[in-house]
Write a structure and sequence with these properties.
- The chain is α/β, with parallel strands linked by helices and about 290 residues long.
- It has 12 helices and 9 strands.
- The longest helix is centred in the middle third of the chain and has 21 residues.
- Bound molecules: ligand C2E and calcium ion (3 copies).
- The site of one calcium ion has 4 residues, from loops.
Amino acid sequence: KHADTAMCRAKANGGNRCQFYNHHLDREAVERIELRNALYQALPNQEFELHYQPQVSVHDARITCVEALIRWHHPDKGTVAPDCFIPLAEESGLIKEIGSWVLDTACQQLKTWRQAGLDLRVAVNLSAAQLDDMAFYQQVKECLERYELQPRHLELELTESILMRHVDHSIRLLNKLDQLGVHLSIDDFGTGYSSLSYLKRLPLDTLKIDRSFVRDLCTDQDDAVICRTIISMANNLKLSVTAEGVERAEQLHKLAEFGCDLYQGYLFSRPLPASDITRLYREYTPP
Ligand code: C2E
Ligand code: CA
Ligand code: CA
Ligand code: CA
C-alpha cells in the first residue's frame, strides 16, 4: 500500500492544484523515497505535532472526547497529511516509534487538560505493528501511570483489518486492555471485512461509523439504512456509537433520530492544536 504521492503533493500545497511532470512515475518514486528518508529525521527533529478533534454528544453538544491526529511539519514541503506518511511509516517500520510518541504525547496533554479541570477522554489511533506483541499492554500501562491517568480516560481506536490480522492474539491483548479499563473502539466501522461473530467476542466499547456512510446520509437511501442499522445494532449490543465526518446539520439531525451517541466532524470543529481545544471546551461546557 503506497501513499498516493501526487495527491499528497497537491495537499501539501494546500489545495486542488494539479501538477504534471514529464516523467510522472519516476518523479513519484523519487518523491516517495525522499519523503521516506525525511521521515527518519522527523522524530529526532521534533517535526510531529498532534491536533485534536472533538467528539461531541449528539444530545447536548458536550465535548466528551478528543481524537489525537498526527501532523508532520516537513521542513520544505509544509504540512504533510497522515494519509501520505503513515503508510510509509508502516512500510519502513518507523510506525512503532511514531506510535509510541503519539501515545505518550496524547497522554501528557490529557494530564494537562485534566489538571486544568477539563473532563475529557483522549482517543489514539493505532497501527497493526503496534499490537504485534504483548509489550504494547505494558507500554499503555506505564504511560497511564507516568501521567497519573485513569485507564477509562484513554481510548484506543483500532480498525477491523488490524483486529482481523491475528484474531486470537487481538482478542487476548484487547481482553487485557479491557481488564485494565481502557476504552476500546472500532474505527472506520463498516469498511473492513470483520465478521460480526468476532466483533461479539471482542471487549469493545464503541463503534465509529465510517464517514463514507455519513457523507450522503441525507440523499442516499442505502447509506441512511446502513447508518440506522449500525446504530441500532450498536445500541442492542450495548456499545456506544460515534459518527465520523459530520459536516452538515441535516446529517446530525438524522443521526440523532437514529439514536447515535456522539459525532465528530467539521460541523462542530476541525482537528485543532491543543490550546484551541481548551478554549472550545470552555465555550461549550457550562460551569
Ligand atoms: P481517521 O482515524 O479515520 O481520522 C479521521 C480523519 O477524518 C482525519 O483525517 C480528520 O481530519 C478527517 N475528518 C474529520 N472530520 C471530517 C469531516 O467532517 N469531513 C471530512 N471530509 N474529513 C473529516 P486526518 O487527520 O488527515 O487523518 C487521516 C488518517 O490518518 C486517520 O483517519 C488515521 O487513519 C490516520 N492517522 C492520523 N493520526 C494517526 C496516528 O497518530 N496514528 C496512526 N496509526 N494513524 C493516524
Ligand atoms: Ca480514528
Ligand atoms: Ca471495556
Ligand atoms: Ca475513522
